[in-house]
Amino acid sequence: METVLEVRGARHKYGATQALDGVDLDVAAGECVALLGPNGAGKTTLVNQVIGLLPAGDGEVRVCGGDPRVAATRRRLGVVQQALGFPNTLKVSELVTGAAVRAGKPRAAAGPVMAELDLTELAGRRASKLSGGQKQRLQLAMALVGDPRLLVLDEPTAGLDVPARRRFWQILAERRERGTGVLLTTHIIEESSAVADRVVVLDRGRVLAGGTPDELVARLPDRTVIARTGLGLERLQALPGVVSLRTDGEHVRLGTRAPEALLRVLLAEDPGLTDLRVEGAGLEEAVAGLIERGAA
Ligand SMILES: Nc1ncnc2c1ncn2[C@@H]1O[C@H](COP(=O)(O)OP(=O)(O)OP(=O)(O)O)[C@@H](O)[C@H]1O
Questions:
Q1: Residue ranges of the ABC transporter domain (predicted)?
Q2: For residue 52, which of 68, 143, 203, 263 is within the disulfide window of CB 3.0 to 4.6 Å?
């Protein structure tokens, strides 16, 4: 299988902060790799190296075998990144057409991509007048119109409602079938569990763990304790053995490697606890557990 992204020994320092400390990463054609990790792990720094905004230091970044700091290589890349933005004074159709031309495609390539992303009716609108979700779809249209070999998506579904999110992943699945590789960062871990072939967990500039979502979950004996409780989130977070905490409707989900001890404390502290159950860890709990252990 052709490799569309190859990162070897990526390092980056901001002053005294070692943001990346020797990261290796590959994405094959058609593959979706999710880059996960806590705030400050180095995800944005790595993404910026992959899209050519930052030099690779003494490491190496190759997109389809080329250096992403070179314009010809960047044409093979599609990027959706909140920070990139676009000139708000231009109209939707002008922006998508401009992106097509920059990628070496005919102007006519813009129409079908705008239709694919439900932007046709908004073609004459200024980008500044779009809602957050519409801007997100515009960014994706601009990324896809060049028919990229590698798509780099940084929090791509932030601001999208549920139908738009579903449509987004559907469009991506079609592109992947045609061989486009995807590097994705997201804080919605359960989403990566559904869409990614592989997950790479980054922490303090290093790769902590990598594998399919199922492999990562299987590496840990962790469990998820789910309940309805009157205890506050701060108290729950401080309970012994809790490695992750998430609310899910009226329930809380506590990731732990010692479910029996946690259950005893929970029941003692909240006699009104209801709907209690214990499940295997999901990807979210597994990633939190791996980070807590600093597992390699
Ligand atoms: N421009 C900068 N100047 C100085 N330090 C920086 C700069 N950008 C990032 N850092 C530091 O580098 C480290 C990695 O940051 P980075 O933004 O890559 O992490 P991240 O994984 O994307 O985090 P988040 O999930 O919060 O977006 C952090 O310690 C951060 O404080």
A1: 5-229
A2: 68
